[in-house]
Structures are given as C-alpha cells and as structure tokens.
C-alpha cells in the first residue's frame, strides 16, 4: 500500500547516507516515476530531503534529521509485529505495549502518512479464532514462554506432568491456539502452551540451529502429522464438483493424489488414505450425491445407509 511504501522509503533514507532513485525503485518494486512522486510528497509532508543531480548525486536526508521512531522501547519495537492482531498481543502480555508502540508510530508519521495508517487501523480487523468457537481461555504461562523465546534463554517447564528443560525457538498461533516450538535433547518438537503448568526462564543461553526457519519447520511438521494419521485406504468415484471440493472435506494432505482420467460424465476415480472408517464416513457424507465408494465394501454399505436414512427422513 502507498502509505507503507512511503514509510519504508523514509526509513531507508534515514538508514543510509545517500541513495539513488533507481536504487529505491528496485528496492521497493516500483517505477522511477513513482519514486519521484513519492519523494515530492515526502518533501511536501515536511521530511527534509536533499536531491543532487550528476554523477555523484543522489537522494538523502538533511544531516542530523531523524524520525521520531527512535523513541520506541525494545518491547514496543517487538510489539510492532502484533499491531492489528490485538488478541495475540494480549495473549503474550503485550497488549498495552502494542498500543503504546502504535501511538508512537502514528505520532512520528507526517500527517498524510498518518491519515492512511489510521484508515487501515480503523477499517481492518483480524479475527484469529474460527467461527463457532467458544471464547478462549488465556494460557497463564504464555508470557513467560514468550520472554524465553525473545531472550534466547533456556526454559524449564512442567508439561503434562513432567519437567523438561528446552531451547525455545519460536511460537506459533494456529486458530488462536498457541504452540511452543523448542529443541529438546537434539529434537525439535512442538508443545501446546495451554498444557504448560509452570515455566521459568533460565539464565542459560543457547545457539539456534543453523538456518532454522520457523514457518518452514511448522509447515513440514503439520504435513508430517497429517500424513501419520492417514492409515485407512479407500477407493472413490467423484463427480467434478466433489473432486474440486474434496480437499475442503478431507484435508490437503489426504487429497494430494492424482485422479484417473475423467469418464464421459466427468467423474474421476481416486485412491485415498483417510484417518479411519468412522472419520471417512463423516467426511464423505458432506459430498452428498457426488461420491461413490468403490472400496472397501464396509464403508460403501455404511455410506449407503446414511444416504437412505437421509432420503427417507427428508421425503416425509
């Protein structure tokens, strides 16, 4: 968005003695014309920019000028990552700190940029839990766990009745449920923070694994967990609509298969691995008349019985 681009441009200029319009255009992914227009708007907003032409020219801020962003504390700087997600900031014990950081950030911006930022704040809300969920209960140990993650210090915790000392590598919020990703005895595991009954940040520090990427690790761990549950084999025929929607009902990993060529009606045959016959029955019922179970026969009979009962009940 343009407001965020202007802020980024201002901070880039603040962090370097001199740059060029071409370099800014490449860094920000915009045209030279856009850079020149943005520079003019920043100047009009009161940012003291100096432009020089020629071989050794460029764009720079006047010596000694800085934005007010230096007034942010360390905690407020960390809380900037949670602006727009107040529920997560509250969980981590950073609700008031995030509000303070937001106030300082807005106050530091020139008026045109501040107006754009306030519009997004007032018109965008991130609702972290899914629909139809009960109100969340806070994890009392989460702020302590978060401190250990940010400080890079070992954590001693009671988890499901046993005490462990771990190297906390990161936190993941999935559908408003928090997980600690930590190294324990050489293995990287995830722990649901609501199951941590006590936590103490230790003085010991640790070295993070080389190249560890929290998002990539979590995505891989999720996929591995999903695959570990898929032990029930089933062969299905699916209508074009059912094949298009199948991942929504059985999950992405289970639907990661190659179908047969469509028949004359567009139906395809797929070999799936699902969690269990009981789970498969509930999942496939949602596909209605767009699914036919080829095997196993036990699932075919049970799905047929469900369909017959639904038809009889709704024919009255």
From TrEMBL:
Name of protein: YafY family transcriptional regulator
WYL domain: residues covered: 142-200
Domain WCX: start-end pairs: 233-311
Organism annotation: Antrihabitans stalagmiti
Source taxon at top rank: Bacteria
Helix-turn-helix type domain residues: 10-59
């Amino acid at each position: 968005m343009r407001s965020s681009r202007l802020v980024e441009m201002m901070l880039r200029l603040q962090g370097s003695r001199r740059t060029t319009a071409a370099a800014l255009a490449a860094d920000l992914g915009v045209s030279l014309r856009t850079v020149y227009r943005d520079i003019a708007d920043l100047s009009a907003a009161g940012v003291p920019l100096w432009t020089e032409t020629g071989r050794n020219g460029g764009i720079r801020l006047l010596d000694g000028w800085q934005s007010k962003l230096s007034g942010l504390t360390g905690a407020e700087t960390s809380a900037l990552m949670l602006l727009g997600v107040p529920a997560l900031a509250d969980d981590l014990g950073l609700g008031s700190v995030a509000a303070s950081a937001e106030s300082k950030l807005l106050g530091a911006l020139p008026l045109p940029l501040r107006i754009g930022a306030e519009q997004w704040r007032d018109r965008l809300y991130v609702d972290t839990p899914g629909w139809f969920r009960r109100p969340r209960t806070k994890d009392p140990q989460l702020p302590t766990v978060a401190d250990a993650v940010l400080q890079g210090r070992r954590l001693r915790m009671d988890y499901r009745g046993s005490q462990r000392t771990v190297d906390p590598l990161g936190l993941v919020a999935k559908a408003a449920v928090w997980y600690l990703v930590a190294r324990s005895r050489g293995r990287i595991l995830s722990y649901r923070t609501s199951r941590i009954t006590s936590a103490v940040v230790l003085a010991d520090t640790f070295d993070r694994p080389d190249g560890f990427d929290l998002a990539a690790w979590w995505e891989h761990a999720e996929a591995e967990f999903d695959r570990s549950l898929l032990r029930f084999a089933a062969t299905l025929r699916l209508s074009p609509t059912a094949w298009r929607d199948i991942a929504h009902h059985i999950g992405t990993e289970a639907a990661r298969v190659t179908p047969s060529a469509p028949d004359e009606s567009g139906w395809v045959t797929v070999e799936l691995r699902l969690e269990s016959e009981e789970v498969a029955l509930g999942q496939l019922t949602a596909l209605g008349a767009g699914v036919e179970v080829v095997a196993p026969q036990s699932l075919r009979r049970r799905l047929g019985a469900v369909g017959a009962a639904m038809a009889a009940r709704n024919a009255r």
